[in-house]
Amino acid sequence: MRSWRLSVSSVAALLACLASLCTIATNAAALTIVRYLDGVGDGSDVPVALLKVPAPTDTTLANYDPGRDAFPGLWLRQGGSGVGESDPTLYQLWRIPAGGSTINGAVSMTIWTAMRNFDLSANGTLVAFLVECNADGTGCVQIASATVSRPDWDVGDTGTWIQDTFNFGIVNHTVNSGKSVGFKVIVGPSSARDMWLAYDTVNYPAWGQLTILAPGISVTPTSGLTTTESGGTQLEHATNRNGDGRERFRRRRQRGIHHRDGSSDQHRRQLQRDERVGRGGHEYR
Question: Does any domain span residue 219?
């Protein structure tokens, strides 16, 4: 009977631990989470926006920078100087509160891109930074970076948005208290022209994928990265109509180009034609 009473006591202690979301360092597990790049559509979140949990539901690509032009998507000027870039026309940041969380594994970001005016031959360079910033998005410090550069950005001459994934590799970084973590994007100085970005729609569901360390049962409940994600891994948009993510990656490597969103949906084709017509000349390069 004594050993049974001890067992009950142990169980009670464990339940109390779970109720208080205590951490058990010896039972840490990596948790893959997905956060989507948010776009309000009125310019209020340019150049600092949020990463959000729900997948996009909008079917029409909004004009995220109405103060710059009247066309769908986001316009970034060429010539960003690095992670410290502060000119609001030269960078865009998406972030989420993450103080106390530990990134511990693979990190990537996927977004749809195009050269200005859907140029079919210009070279482009887009640089993405995984950053730790103040809660308001200022004072960003680089954790990791990834660059996509092509001498012919639209090598397939599609004349529309191109899906690009930035792989930051394996990251091990504990976010400082009160800080946020996110993705900051600039158009490199070697790019021939300005670039456009598409995100936060059903057709262009741009997302960031992070692996965080989840000690014990949970992580600090005040963090924007605290979730069990319905069992641990959420990868809905790592697959598409063309097959699973591994097959898509193999095909991409064989072609030597990035995946295009190849839907045959008539509405999407019309939307893409409208975007090509709409995104016309402007004072930027």
Answer: yes
Q: Give the range of the structural domain holding residue 82, as residue numbers without chain letter.
A: 25-278
Tokens of 86: 């502060």
Q: What is the pLDDT of residues 93-131, one digit of tens each?
A: 999 999 999 999 999 999 999 999 999 999 999 999 999
Instruction: Work out whether strand 180-187 and strand 195-198 pair parallel, antiparallel, or are unpaired.
Output: unpaired
- What token pair was written down for 179? 């800080």
Residue 47: cis peptide before it, omega within 30 degrees of 0: yes
Instruction: Please report whether residue 4 resides in a domain.
Output: no
* Angstrom distance (rounded) from CA 170 to CA 197: 25
- Residue bearing the bigger pLDDT, 111 or 8: 111
Q: What is the 8-class DSSP label of residue 194?
A: -
pTM of the predicted model as reported, rounded to 2 decimal places: 0.71
Q: Whole-angstrom Cα distance, residue 124 to residue 114?
A: 9
Q: Which amino acid does the sequence have at 210? A: L
Structure confidence by residue, pLDDT tens digits, 202-237: 999 999 999 998 654 333 333 455 443 333 333 333
**Is 5 part of any domain?**
no
Counting the structural domains of the chain, the total is 1
Q: Is beta strand 207-214 parallel, antiparallel or unpaired with respect to 102-115?
A: antiparallel
- Alpha carbon distance 280, 196 (integer Å): 12
User: Does residue 13 form part of some domain?
Assistant: no
Q: What are the CA-CA distances from residue 221 to residues 16, 134, 178, 201, 208 (Å)?
A: 16, 19, 13, 29, 21
